[in-house]
From TrEMBL:
It comes from Amycolatopsis japonica. InterPro entries: 7-CO-7-deazaguanine_synth-like, Aldolase_TIM, rSAM, rSAM_sf. This is 7-carboxy-7-deazaguanine synthase. S-adenosyl-L-methionine binds at W48, C49, D50, G91, S140, P141, K142. Residues 29-236 form the Radical SAM core domain. Signal peptide: none annotated. The gene is queE. It holds the Pfam family Radical_SAM. SUPFAM superfamilies: Radical SAM enzymes. It comes from the Bacteria. Catalyzes the complex heterocyclic radical-mediated conversion of 6-carboxy-5,6,7,8-tetrahydropterin (CPH4) to 7-carboxy-7-deazaguanine (CDG), a step common to the biosynthetic pathways of all 7-deazapurine-containing compounds. HAMAP family: QueE.
Length: 240
């Protein structure tokens, strides 16, 4: 899919939804009070994608799923509900780098969020301005079970770039214990650390079952295990 068309590259973002307060449900900030901006558009199409409304015309009316918000609109929303943690997610947020740069730099100038995380697939390198503005990149390289070809989901130069920022954590979506060998290959080849393993699933029963399946093998590799807290609390409801 082509990157979304932005009416003014410097001033507008194409957004799927904004929501919060809620909790960050994944990775090292799990459980933290947070606000989310979910950007529209993705150049990948994982078989198990949990946000298909950001890019999949077969299942969603994409015209109804996107809104062009000015940076001023987003800043006003944040000012009315101050964010301890702001999470920029998608879709793929790094498809809209210039407007995102301006947004995050202004958020920092006005102290509208203590911490900022960007969730990304690790296939598009961040700009220097974005790297300086964020607290953390939650980078989630896709595994073979995503249904994507390796050259689509593994971009060596981009992975090395993220690793070199010193601001990346690596969060792998896993379905079964055999997937951990694939994670190990990527981790060893590109020196990715720290590693978080997260079960794939959009309902609490699946998430819990896979966490129990993965717990001991993940411990044995001395990696971290992430839940999907929002799924355990609210199943697959949007806006959480």
């Amino acid at each position: 899919m082509k990157p979304p068309a932005v009416s003014d590259v410097a001033r507008d973002l194409v957004v799927n939804e904004t929501f919060g307060p809620t909790f960050q449900g994944e990775g090292p900030s799990t459980g933290r009070y947070a606000h989310f901006i979910r950007l529209f558009g993705c150049h990948l199409s994982c078989a198990w994608c949990d946000t298909p409304q950001t890019h999949d015309p077969a299942r969603y009316d994409l015209a109804a799923e996107q809104q062009v918000l000015s940076i001023d609109d987003i800043l006003s929303w944040l000012a009315s509900t101050p964010a301890e943690l702001l999470v920029i997610t998608g879709g793929e947020p790094l498809l809209q780098p210039r407007a995102l740069e301006r947004l995050l730099c202004t958020i920092r100038e006005r102290a509208l969020a203590a911490d900022i995380e960007i969730e990304t697939s690790g296939t598009i390198p961040p700009t220097d301005l974005l790297t300086s503005a964020v607290t953390r990149f939650n980078v989630s390289p896709k595994l073979a079970h995503s249904g994507l070809r390796r050259h689509q989901r593994v971009r060596p130069a981009v992975l090395r770039h993220f690793a070199g920022t010193g601001k990346a954590i690596w969060k792998f979506v896993v379905q079964e214990t055999g997937d951990l060998d694939e994670v190990q290959e990527l981790v060893g080849t590109y020196d990715l650390k720290p590693v978080w393993i997260m079960p794939e699933g959009t309902d609490s029963a699946t998430v819990l079952a896979r966490m129990r399946l993965l717990a001991e093998p993940v411990l044995a590799r001395r990696w971290h295990l992430s839940t999907r807290l929002h799924t355990l609390l609210w199943e697959n409801d949007r806006g959480h």
